[in-house]
Amino acid sequence: MDKIFGLHTETLLIWVASLTTLAFLYLAILAIRKQIILRISFRSIIRYPTQSALIMFGLMLSTAIIGASLGVGDTVTHSIRKAAIDGIALTDEVITPQGSRFFGENYLTSEQVNEILLLAQENDLVDGFTTAVESVFPTINEANSRSEARMNAYGIKNFIGSNITIATLADGTGTQISDLQGNDALLNRKATETLNASTGTPLTLLTPTGQQIVIVKGIIEKSGLGIGDGSSSIFLSQDLMQTITNRNDAVDEILISNAGGVETGLEHSEEVTKYFRLALTNKDTATQIYQLLATSDVIDLLNAKISDDQAIAMSDEMKDNLTTIVSALETGELNSAFTTLIADPEIFRAISSSIDSVNEGESQAQLGVLRRNLSSFNVNDIKNDLVRLAEGAGQGTTLFLTIFGSFSILVGLLLIFLVMVLLAAARSTEMGMVRAIGFRRSLLTEMFALEGWVYAAGASAIGTLVGFLISFVLVELLRRAINVDSFQIYTTFTPQSIVITFGVGFLLTLLTIVVSAARISRLNIVVAIRGLNEELARESTTDWSSEFRTLIGTLGGPITVIRSGLREKSSDTVGNQTRLPISVRTIIKAIAVTIPPIYVFRIIFRLIRILILSTKRYVVQGWPVAIAGVAFCQRGLQNDVGSTFSIGVMLSIIGLGLLLRKVLQRTKLQRTTQSRIAGSFEGGTLMVFWGMPFDTLEPLTGELSFGPEVFVLSGASMVGASVWLVMHNTQIILSVLNFTLGRITKLRAVFKVAIAYPFGARLRTGLTIAMFSMVIFTLMINMVLSNLDNVGRSDPDRITGGFDIVATTSEDLPINDFDQSVAASNILKQDDFIAVGRSTNFSLIARQDGAEARVFKRLTVKIADDAYFSTTTHEFSTFDKSYGTNEREIWDQLRNNPNLAVLSHAAISTGDPFSGPSSGFAVEGFDQSGGDLEWKTISVELRPLRDSDQTIKRKVIGILDSVVDQSDWESPTYLVTKEDMLTELTGTPPIFDTYSIKLSDPSMTNEIIPLLETVFLENGLDAVSLSEQINESLESGEAFNKLFQGFTGLGLIVGIAAIGVLAIRAVVERRTSIATLRAIGYTPRMIQAQFLMEAVFITLMGVVIGMGLGTLTSWNIYTEISKEVQGLQFTVPWRNVLALIILTSICSIVSAYIPARQASRIYPAEALRTE
Amino acid sequence: MIKAHGVHKTYGAGTLEVHALNSVSIEVNEGEMVAIMGPSGCGKTTLLNCLSGLDSIDAGEVFIDDREIQTLSDDQMSDFRARFMGFVFQTFNLLPVLTAQENVEMPLLVSGVSPKEAAEKAFRQLEFIGLPDRAAHKPAELSVGQRQRVAIARALVNDPAIIWADEPTGNLDSQTENEVMDLILQLNKETKQTIMLVTHSEEVGARADRIVRMQDGEIIN
């Protein structure tokens, strides 16, 4: 992948590898210099090998999740890239005509081919030039009566470099695809199987010019051209194709191969594409565009766009291209760079959308008109585009998994923290002792860091391996979910991903360990040795003079080292070991601290320490945090960035909470009460803020934009806040639980202790609850939301429009009279059909009357006949009530009035944070997510894509239900109107190619489909069952959901591991308490039950909080979506939820079972004797 | 009330074998307060643990209220301890996460007393030892003397026939030691409970009905 987590892979790799190496080096130097702490650290690892192994297992989970995300991303990238490159082989660019169906020339003439051929011959970077004619024919194998209704037929001819058209035959040898003569044909594997044909089989093609017999000359595995490899395909000689399609000497496209091989040719793609775009651009039009754009207004707007930090959708490459355009405009002279770039459709769109305000939109409109005449050709950088698509898919998958896996990663880091806290608790006495005998605090941190080094390195190595295995399993599930035979998935884990996984895992783990160690090292010596309560210890004060002396010493670098080396009266021997002389050691040290990164790092570290120490006392007073929060809010409002605003609100609440603590300290309330009030305020207010419906603050803030990061931010904040609230109100919860469940006499003795202990250790319990909550929160949202979109199951008519079958025919072989053909057949009856609606799609350009944007943008138009309008039951998201009071009346209006139309839902603003900006037509002035509900009719101007300035108008009286967009559309933005539009534009009657069929008996769908395909074989009719299509889509949707749930569920393993860690530690810590309980009459079974109950209690607390928050957030999301999509049902999948609760609880019990059994076997006298 | 004959207890094995109790025989009458004294490591606590059933014995027999405790299963022994015995330890061993009243409630709950009755009885017991105002406080919020009094309340709350006290004043200053001993003696006099007390303190031992002295795992007096 080129990018990971939004950063360039190379950059990330260098940073991660450098930081990991530096960390290793630092720790290695530390280990050599301070061998005593190295020995203590390593002995701790060796002393308890099982515990060390368990720690490594716990620590590796975050790394494993990162590894799994990258592994799946690598696999997706590699598989798509390989499929693309293998499929397209030597073809690098494709040139097609600008015309479209019904409008403009749709083919390339021989003159145009020759013009481009000359250009190709003049360019050394081009070594292959081939033309292709394409069509679709029904094909019959007369010998066995097998047929293929939609056989893709290709005619290929070479002009340069015959190697471009070498196809791979089934026996592994190659053949010249362009050498086909007469009626020779090559079949691909799929067509061979469908027709059960072999070499020598005669086939009948039903063409626009009549029947054509061809003979199969060979079976090919791969054409190597990127065409004819997927669905059933046949290759013929180009002459034959031109004859049977009536094309004369015209072709559909030109395939170009760059110099070099399949992979190396890609290196020249950009240059070759630019070359052809420049050469094929109309210079006069380019000059006109240049003159139109060369104004200070346009230059200012483009500069503003380039420097806009918020333009996250714009790639760095696009910014560079716009900068080149601006430079060209500033020189005042048209250059080739400008002409080349302006011919790129993406760049053109970016410029067009930037200048919508110039001359009240007139410049944008003129630009749109000029664009149509800029070139007669589309030069598609096809291989590069496919590789980019592969990269994008891989990056998208990684980003998706990382965003949703981030909760699990966070949970893994919490586990690391928890493990370190427990390790410190276990060693508090010995840590107190080493402090007592003169170890500095920093040595304790270093001691843990060295121990953590081994854990982090081991855990990251294991985690990388486990991550790879998880990605393997996920990819296998993905393969089953996709269920496409023709697409091979190759499990891949690139060396870069291995290094990044290991490095990121190592650094995150080590950082968490060091932060935990720094916290642990702040122990009070007496408290630690005597095992007293930490609260008894008073915090030490900062020695400022010492801090500043150290900083000056660090600034001095080698001078300080040499100075202290000269003063040191150190022996050159330690015990019986000889050390390096002091002079040598001083020189090595002096050189080390002079190395720039080390020198700078040490100074930054010292400065940060002083900054933290100097600001800490103010920060805890709350007001600086609150002020910072207000500043963040202000910044968020200025830039319309919701996440920044939300962080600001959070900081403000935390600041106010800290301030409240200070105020409460002045009262006579007990410390616990003060903490409870302030903690409840902080947790409660944050919960309310994040739990509110998304638009609550909109009247105050206006509509802010949110990205996907808001999901992670809100989830982590809500969980954190709710756990904070719970852990500050344990007494209330204890009372409630004791009052309810505790009333059961037999349970009470066990129950009371089982819930009291977790609440007694708030930090570790809070952390574990947070782990479970985060994962359950994510799973809950996924389960509720995937259940929300069940329209396909609950009300399929909203998607199908009441039709049962959709059938399409070849564009070249339309059906003349459907009813007549049915009547003439002896296998279908007219009674089988209630209605057959005809329609077809084509592209136009459109703009909204009276809107600010004056430019015409591409819009797909669907024209349909009366039968379609009379039958369809598709619903509307909104419609103009003056045209009808219900859906049927609106459809009737469309049937009766050809000047009316409706638009698909994608044409209006959705406010979806996950969707990118639309480049096609969009309605202005209606924002359903912003509260607009009533549709008022708008007028839309429509024009052919090129060759005509004829403009027609349609009144848009409604917006289709968003679920209709789920139908199989190339473009989700389209306009539906009566067939008259095409006649109005072209003067010819429409040719329909899509048939929406409503059957009198829908249960006969699967029986009718093959009969339809037989009757209309000569039209190449391909029919599909809409209900089956919906089912397949639902099934693959469910498979993806399960895949995602499985990935998210990995976090539960971390939570369950945490339960086990807690239980193991509890057994060690509570030996005396267990013995006391045994002494007063607890049976071993009661002790075991108490431990298991603790595990279940913590788990259930986490599950309940996660479920509550997940349901609340899902409800808010549902409310937001419901503004646009009617009829959605909010249901909590209780069966799944119950299964989740039971499964999680059982896993927790299993995790705590062994420690619980150990606890029950503690012999009271022995435990009391060793207390 | 308590009869032990030829009790042997050995810890470790091979060269590290330690004979903690070496053919110890003792009888304690109902309502008697016996102090077990001797130097560190002489086997005082081991004897207490073996007699109370907290620890097993290698040889000999122990009868409590004419029941041979070696024949009881672990669960039966636990139940027996819950109903007939109370324990006081040197380090109090209160559960830190429970309040004083909840600590006192525990033996009642484990004996199957209803939660409501257990709470009432525990509070009355705290009143009896003079700490009703500390009922809702956790052990960390109590002084050491108060903690030991709560531990005594816990030992007494089930009206046990025998109280086993292992160095009950070992962690207390002299004034608190006297207060705690006054309380134990008061109980012994008022409720006629049998009390077995392990102590180093001659003053404490002097207040018992009888002193049993031990050395090297044997009763010498």
Side by side, the strands of the main sheet of chain B go: 6-7-8-3-9-10
For the record, the count of structural domains of chain B works out to 1
Tell me, what's the shape of chain B?
globular
The counted number of beta strands of chain B is: 10
Tell me which oligomeric state these chains represent: heterodimer
* Computed Rg of chain A: 36 Å
Order of helices and strands of chain B: EEEHEEHEHHHEHEHEE
Which class best fits the helix and strand makeup of chain B? alpha/beta
Folded structure, characterized:
The complex is a heterodimer of chains A (1171) and B (221). With 1171 residues, chain A is of the alpha+beta class. Chain A has 5 domains: 1-90 and 381-540, no CATH class; 93-271, no CATH class; 281-300 and 311-375, no CATH class; 729-794 and 1030-1171, no CATH class; 810-1020, no CATH class. Chain A has 42 helices and 25 strands. In chain A, the strands form 4 sheets. Chain A has a 6-stranded mixed β-barrel. In chain A, helix 28 packs antiparallel against helix 29 and helix 30 packs antiparallel against helix 38. Chain A starts with a strand and ends with a helix. The model of chain A is unreliable at 533-538 and 913-917 (pLDDT under 50). The longest helix of chain B has 18 residues, at 174-191. In chain B, the strands form 2 sheets. Chain B has a 6-stranded mixed beta sheet with strand order 6-7-8-3-9-10. Chain B has a 4-stranded antiparallel beta sheet with strand order 2-1-4-5, with helices on one face. Chain B is globular and about 50 Å long. In chain B, a hairpin with a 6-residue loop joins strand 1 and strand 2. In chain B, helix 3 crosses helix 4 (115-128). With 221 residues, chain B is of the alpha/beta class. Chain B is built from 7 helices and 10 strands. Chain B has one domain: 3-Layer(aba) Sandwich (Rossmann fold), CATH 3.40.50. Chain B starts with a strand and ends with a strand. Chain B has helices spanning 44-52, 74-84, 100-110, 115-128, 144-156, 174-191, 202-206; strands spanning 2-11, 18-28, 33-37, 59-64, 67-68, 85-88, 162-166, 194-198, 210-215, 218-219. Chains A and B meet through helix 29, helix 39, helix 40 and helix 42 of A and helix 1, helix 2 and helix 3 of B.
